[in-house]
Amino acid sequence: MMETKKYSTVQVAELVGISPDTLYRWIREKRFHVPPVQSLGRLRVRFWAKQEIDEVLKYKDAHYGEKPNHPRKVTKAKK
């Protein structure tokens, strides 16, 4: 039997090209199916398979596509 590679939530965010905060928000908002939380001792983690990562990519592409990076405006503090 061939074992499939599993990824952490932070690794998935990195692979997809979004921040971990964005991925956690999408998980809270139930934007797609997510793997169940598993306990590893005192840690609670999700282990993502390729199919689940593909769902995240599909959601991102359908709702966000390629957005250009715009620099933020820096405002001067009032004295």
Number of helices: 3
Average the pLDDT over all residues and give the rounded result.
Answer: 86
Number of strands: 2
Briefly note the structural class of the backbone: alpha+beta
Oligomer: single chain
| Unreliable stretches covering 5 or more consecutive residues | none
Which range does the strand content fall in? 5-15%
| Shape category | extended
- Rounded to the nearest angstrom, the radius of gyration is 17 Å
Strand order of the largest sheet: 1-2
Helix content range: 25-40%
Secondary-structure element sequence?
Answer: HHEEH
Tell me the distance between the termini: 67 Å
- Main sheet makeup: 2 strands, antiparallel
Précis, in short:
The protein has three helices and two strands. The chain is an alpha+beta fold and about 80 residues long. α1 (about 10-15) packs across α2 (about 20-30).
